Amino acid sequence: xxxxxxxxxxxxxxxxxxxxxxxxxxxxxxxxxxxxxxxxxxxxxxxxxxxxxxxxxxxxxxxxxxxxxxxxxxxxxxxxxxxxxxxxxxxxxxxxxxxxxxxxxxxxxxxxxxxxxxxxxxxx
Length: 124
Fold this sequence. Notes:
This protein is an alpha+beta fold. The protein is about 40% helix and about 15% strand. The longest helix has 18 residues. It starts with 9 loop residues before the first helix and ends in a 16-residue tail after the last strand.
């Protein structure tokens, strides 16, 4: 796993989730950065591959899901969303169908349905 996408300390994740839940739209950028990178690292470990690029600007992107490997230019399969949407999906507070249906997630190309991999975190 790249150095920028490491699993975070479980205590730090729990504390950041609490602060983000309390802050909503005003969530601290450091907490969002920690959670986005942590949950992308979890996704990468659960769905290794390089056929889909998952982007959560401005924090990070990762290539996941088995299939044809992407190496240059614009990937053929891209999923993109904001940080709060990604944290909501990863934590199970937001369903994949609701996020896509409401336009909070942009997904194009093959294998871009992340529903089988979500949620990535169980509260508690």
